[in-house]
Each structure stands twice: as C-alpha cells, then as structure tokens.
Specification:
Blueprint: H1 3-8, H2 12-49, H3 55-82, H4 89-115, H5 124-144
Length: 145
C-alpha cells in the first residue's frame, strides 16, 4: 500500500501527530548536526589549548557549549515549526526543564561511553541514539500540554 493511501486513511488528529513526528525529525537532525559540529570544534580547541585536561572535563565542557547553542535553535524551531505553538513563559520553562533533564542524561551517557574507551568524537553517536527519543517525549509533553 503506498504511503499516500496510508496517510489518506488517517484522521486529522493522526495526520497532525504524524506531521509532528516528521517535523521533529527534521528539526532534530538539524539540532543534532549543530550540536555535533559545535562539539567537535570545541573538543579540538580544548585539546589544543588545554592538552593536560582530563577527557571527561573536555567532553563535558564541549558538550555543554554545543548543547546550549543547539537548544537555542531547537526552541525556536520547535515552537514555530515542529509543534506550531506560541512561545510563552510556561512553555519556555517546560522546554528548558526538559532540556536540563536531557542535558544531564547526555552528560552521563557521553562520559560513560568515553569512560569505557570510545573515542571522544565517536562517543556522541550512541549517546544521541539514547537521548534523542527521550528528548522527543519530554519536549512534546511540555510544549503540547
């Protein structure tokens, strides 16, 4: 059965939900790319400028900087494009809260993978596989409720 036929059989609420998932995926891929590229840049800078720093300090610092940049993009895109809701204090607070949880989860998972010996540049891949689905659930809950 072609995808067009499947979509035509969905009711409006199901189509809206599917649209959110697709838009979240697009915004998510861009946000992950922004975060990953910023992370790689900051890791390289820190390794060059602070060669004696511990790997965990480097990855946590780099991820923190990259995450903040990514979250700013993500909030704007999530409210305007993904969920098509107006930004307000309550939604902003929920978004920030959900991203604090996601950031803490990312930090723990990233440091775990670096701790078991994964390369700093590679460790973000399995981290994203774990944290992106969690982030979708949290962000949707706080922006749509």
């Amino acid at each position: 059965m072609p995808i067009k036929d499947i979509i035509n059989h969905l009711d409006d609420k199901q189509r809206q939900g599917l649209g959110e998932v697709i838009r979240f995926g697009i915004v998510g891929v861009i946000a992950v790319a922004i975060q990953y590229l910023c992370y790689l840049l900051v890791v390289a800078l820190l390794e060059y400028m602070m060669p004696d720093w511990d790997n965990h300090v480097i990855v946590t610092s780099a991820n923190t900087i990259a995450y903040v940049i990514s979250v700013i993009f993500n909030y704007i895109a999530s409210t305007r494009y993904t969920f098509k809701v107006k930004s307000n204090v309550k939604r902003s607070a929920g978004f920030v809260f959900s991203h604090i949880i996601n950031y803490l989860l990312q930090t723990v998972v990233l440091n775990f993978f670096v701790g078991i010996g994964l390369n700093k540049q590679i460790a973000m891949m399995p981290m994203f596989a774990i944290t992106v689905p969690t982030n979708f659930i949290l962000v949707r809950f706080f922006l749509k409720r």
